[in-house]
Amino acid sequence: MKSLLLALSLFLSAAVSAQAQMRDKYAEMPGSGDVSEARVVDLTRQMVTQLHLNEAQYIRLRAANRIKLARLDEIQWEYKANPGQQHSKIAELEAQYEAECSRILTPTQLSVYRNQQQRDSVPTQPTNEGGIG
Prior knowledge:
The termini are far apart. This protein has a domain at 54-113. It is mostly helical. Residues 24-29 have low confidence and may be disordered. It contains 5 helices and no strands.
């Protein structure tokens, strides 16, 4: 009985120690954790509204969005000291994501998606309403 209790307490202490080490690992590298499900759902729901996705497309895009957001977080954390390399890695990720979208979306939906991306990437000129100049 004593040996069973000793073995159980030894196992429990090892499990607690391992859990503490995992928390330390995630504290050191915040981009490696799971992506917020709310961010994934929000991004996917925006795409549903814009592109009129069916349920199968929604499910596949939600998975692709989860991967994209997780990888984006990793890239931003990993290359925060090197903005040039960070930008190139993000561009590579976007190309991979667009290739995945082209496998999921219909040609019409893909055209709408690309037009939306172009419109979002072009900065708008600020208007000078009621100001001097």
